[in-house]
Amino acid sequence: MTGSFDLPWSDPRLRIPHAEPGNRIGLFGGSFNPPHSGHRLVAEVALKRLGLNQVWWMVTPGNPLKDHANLAPLSERLDEVARYADHPAMRVTALEARFASSYSARTIDRLIRLRPRLTFVWIMGADNLAGFHRWQDWRGIMQRLPVAIVDRPGATLSPLSAPAAHSFAAARVDEACAASLASRAPPAWTFLHTPLDSTSSTALRDRPGRENPRRSATMP
Ligand SMILES: Nc1ncnc2c1ncn2[C@@H]1O[C@H](COP(=O)(O)OP(=O)(O)OP(=O)(O)O)[C@@H](O)[C@H]1O
Ligand SMILES: O=C(O)c1ccc[n+]([C@@H]2O[C@H](COP(=O)([O-])O)[C@@H](O)[C@H]2O)c1
């Protein structure tokens, strides 16, 4: 496992959230270091436009492609995420820490095996589409579940230029049909154009003149 893991095994956030059989669940993985209004926008857009029953904010123990030197403890990020995920259809989970894996492909495999009666969709921002071809078994992810990409400032052109978008061009679903994405057989992905939010965790961490810049995020 990568990253810090400072939760007792009894912490309920290490369990898979409850959902009813047949529910459509959006898996929104992130470092959330710290969470911000852009994350909330992604979660809300996905919930509404994909017609999901729930969005699970999956707080990663540590993105395998990122340096963890400035990564806040998992428990702290979970607490902060809870403030942004304050919505009846949103759940906050650290299940990747319990699974002892930060690789999304493994998490997805495991969830599909453990919850075969749920329908999962992977949710990510457009900047992650640009580098998606560097993720472990990224083609396998595309083959296992539908993927929704939410626009982000600076990455609006990623559906045209990203290697993953090229490889799976034939599987792209028009965003006008986004409500049907969850029920489609993978590979299937869509790009959701939305109102943009330029907030980033990096900018919040780097904000000068604060004793603890990680706590300066504006609430939604
Ligand atoms: N402002 C935003 N608009 C759209 N998507 C976003 C935005 N901020 C983050 N995301 C998406 O949310 C998920 C979690 O992002 P993450 O926690 O890495 O935040 P970040 O702001 O990108 O962090 P950092 O600046 O540290 O890289 C990723 O899929 C990312 O693409
Ligand atoms: O599985 C991988 O190889 C992989 C590579 C990069 C990122 N991810 C996951 O993508 C999600 C978004 O990461 P981040 O750091 O951009 O918030 C989070 O769940 C990461 O664990 C996963």
Automatic annotation (TrEMBL):
Enzyme class: transferase
Signal peptide feature range: none
A GO term, aspect molecular function: nicotinate-nucleotide adenylyltransferase activity
Pathway participation: Cofactor biosynthesis; NAD(+) biosynthesis; deamido-NAD(+) from nicotinate D-ribonucleotide: step 1/1
Region (Disordered): 199-220
Catalytic activity: nicotinate beta-D-ribonucleotide + ATP + H(+) = deamido-NAD(+) + diphosphate
Gene Ontology BP term (one): NAD+ biosynthetic process
Keyword terms: ATP-binding, NAD, Nucleotide-binding, Nucleotidyltransferase, Pyridine nucleotide biosynthesis, Transferase
EC number annotated for this UniProt entry: 2.7.7.18
Basic and acidic residues composition-biased segments: 204-214
Residue ranges constituting the Cytidyltransferase-like domain according to the UniProt record: 27-206
UniProt-listed Gene3D superfamilies: HUPs
Protein function: Catalyzes the reversible adenylation of nicotinate mononucleotide (NaMN) to nicotinic acid adenine dinucleotide (NaAD).
PANTHER family reported for this sequence: NICOTINATE-NUCLEOTIDE ADENYLYLTRANSFERASE-RELATED, PHOSPHOPANTETHEINE ADENYLYLTRANSFERASE
Stated family: Belongs to the NadD family.
HAMAP family in UniProt: NaMN_adenylyltr
Protein name stated in the entry: Probable nicotinate-nucleotide adenylyltransferase
